[in-house]
Amino acid sequence: MLHLTKCRALIDSFVKKGKLTEAKELYNEMITRGIDPTTITYNSLIYGLCMENNTLGEANQMLDLMVSKGCDPDVVTFNTLINGYCKSKQVDEGMRLFRKMSLRGVVADTVTFNTLIQGFCQSGKLDVAKKLFQEMVSQGAHPDIVTYKILLDGLCDNGELEEALGILEKMHKCKMELDISIYTIIIHGMCNESKVDEAWELFCSLPSKGVKPDVKTYTIMIGGLCKKGSLSEAGLLFKKMEEDGIAPISGTYNTLIRAYLRKGELTKSAELIEEMKRCGFSADASTIKMVMDMLSDGRMKKSFLDILS
């Protein structure tokens, strides 16, 4: 015999296993038998629909359905839908739901704001993201470290490094505990703006700030040095990285390999490719394209292809 608790658990289990059809069938059976689903059950179904391709419209219909049946959506309901729309690059629809939730008396939390701020940053609508950040503060939804990461990343990706540095300074003044990912975002932003010397200065100051660079930080800094043309420094940093016990990733190898190729240092490129292959990595699309370009204009012999394979 079906009862509410068992149905709720089964629907949640089906959704987590990706069995959305079974979850919807059980929901329909609940309705047929007069078992009223709770907000938690609707949230599970909406989550499942948001995770599937091309079912956001159905997820939104599920929201309307739960309201029509007298079941109140909560902040989790709206956060799930907003996240679904933002991930599918329909951030304006996410914003429509954000306004709708306030009309229903549902208070947005930090997750709501973080999701929307990230969505607008990624869609290049930085002004809207910044306004949302201010609205977040004014409404008492306290920004957390994730909020700042999203905002700093958005600013740096959209060429607003100076504003990002201003926010970083405020974070320092507020005695916020900053992790390596915050500094990595700033270093990346500096390198993108060709401020490699400033990035290097910040990189070297990390131990004094109580944080250690990780593989992403090293890879970005190596890329910045390569971009500047400081290939010997990039090579030394690569060695230091390994000495510090941080294993390079595919991106680290490929960044350095392309820098050696650009400079015509084919022997060093070949050595690094061999090392990369021993570590289980392979040349990425950008590296392969560079090799093909060099083959076509005669800067490289065909025998070099044997090293890549």
TrEMBL record:
Gene expressing this chain: LOC108856368
Cross-referenced InterPro entries: Mito_RNA-Proc/Resp, PPR_rpt, TPR-like_helical_dom_sf
Family listed: Belongs to the PPR family. P subfamily.
Name of the molecule in the record: Pentatricopeptide repeat-containing protein At1g12620-like
PPR repeat ranges, renumbered to this chain: 3-37, 38-73, 74-108, 109-143, 144-178, 179-213, 214-248, 249-283
Organism: Raphanus sativus
A single GO molecular function term of this UniProt record: mRNA binding
Key words of the record: Repeat
Family annotation (Pfam families): PPR_1, PPR_2
Gene3D superfamilies registered for this protein in UniProt: Tetratricopeptide repeat domain
